[in-house]
Amino acid sequence: MTIEFLLTSIVIVITPGTGVLYTLAAGLTRGGRAGVVAAFGCTLGIVPHMAAAVTGLAALLHTSALAFQIIKYAGVAYLLYMAWNTLRERGALKVEEEARPRTAARVIADGVLVNILNPKLSIFFFAFLPQFVSAGEPAALARMLELSGVFMLLTFVVFAGYGLCAAAVRNQVISRPKVLTWMRRGFGAAFVALGAKLALTER
């Protein structure tokens, strides 16, 4: 483990994206527990991409235009679905006093899908992880798994922090209907913008 890896990972994790947006939305409208649950879901969504990178399957997305396009547009469609639900006062920005167990499962499922349906993550990890593994590393697989575990831990901690910070101002937000309405519109627009950005993404 190197300082360079930790610093690079932290910068990558704290950069706002779909996962951060989803976690903030959960914390703002459903409280700290939902924010942490959302962070957990988003972290789980990273696992398939890291597994693909470690096993070399990400190379398929890099070389196969069809595979990349299929996953990309599935991700775009899901982000637009999230935007639609947000504007209809459902999904991530549905205000509830308490999160029931079944609802928590839904929060996790949405968080997982937000990250799974982003093919750029597989390609990113395919390019990112090998930079921190020596060419002649005798246990390269174990090393990459170790780095992946650290990255996931950082992701969860940072995302949970986002969710808890959002939850800290939750009462001030939901007690003002106009603020909540504009916040909902803002998150909806952000999901649409991220969808458009993903749609324009090339391999």
Rg, alpha carbons = 18 Å
Quote the distance from N terminus to C terminus. Answer: 29 Å
The overall number of domains is 1
Mean of residue pLDDT values: 78
Write the layout of secondary structure elements.
Layout: H1 3-14, H2 18-30, H3 32-44, H4 47-55, H5 58-63, H6 65-87, H7 101-116, H8 119-128, H9 140-168, H10 170-174, H11 177-199
Give a verbal description of the structure.
This protein has eleven helices and no strands. By secondary structure, the protein is mainly alpha-helical. It has one domain (19-92, 99-199).
Short summary of the structure?
With 203 residues, the chain is mostly helical. 78% of the residues lie in helices and 0% in strands. α1 packs across α9 and α2 (18-30) runs antiparallel to α7 (101-116).
Relevant terms:
globular, mainly alpha, about 200 residues
